[in-house]
């Protein structure tokens, strides 16, 4: 028997591949990973389209109870559905290694990921440098390490894809210390929230005597619900990104590097201020 790692796509229930749908229909158990990303439709819509019951696999299930997912996978087929591509998060590599250790055959079925779908904005994929994650700051924890990676990409003329934080089934520090299974409401970072944090870092660096490579006038691209029918893209300066409203999750942001003329022309389609230069790019539905 086989453990399958498949993908549900980026947008809605119909984004699954034909091969993936065939696997879902014949597997004994089908898990849906529900914390590294989300679709624009709920579990019920997926179940209706797939014709199968899905088992939600949250962070606790995947990271602490992974062996339960693989239980009896040597006797029956088990599927693990991921939004995007199976290897978009290191957690999913861990499942493969566990399957191999247990002698369970596995098969991976690929699909679209935000890592390649961002090409919809017109920036060429081979001009991207290291991808970074922008995390929610707290009153006592404001890391800036991702900014250094963005600056390194910028210095090398490369674009940076910023994956924005998702908080699903998270516990407050107080409830965690008390052992209470009480969870916070889901939170999804927006482009304007990410831009505000980056602007704060720019100011911090100046106060430290630095002149950052990334500034308020650096060209950026905001993307929301990539792959969905209501996908939105907006291009403009980092300062403009702090005020853009792109609607519901999920959001991503790109810090642009050196650009080819074709890339500039493409970003003008989504410019927030059409009367300004290519560094001041209009929000538009696509």
From TrEMBL:
S-adenosyl-L-methionine binds at residues 85, 88, 113-114, 164, 226, 251. One of its GO terms (biological process) is protein histidyl modification to diphthamide. The keyword Cell inner membrane does not apply. It catalyses: 2-[(3S)-amino-3-carboxypropyl]-L-histidyl-[translation elongation factor 2] + 4 S-adenosyl-L-methionine = diphthine methyl ester-[translation elongation factor 2] + 4 S-adenosyl-L-homocysteine + 3 H(+). Pfam families: TP_methylase. One of its GO terms (cellular component) is cytosol. SUPFAM superfamilies: Tetrapyrrole methylase. Keywords: Methyltransferase, S-adenosyl-L-methionine, Transferase. Its EC number is 2.1.1.314. Transmembrane segments: none annotated. NCBIfam families: dph5 (TIGR00522). This is diphthine methyl ester synthase. The gene is DPH5.
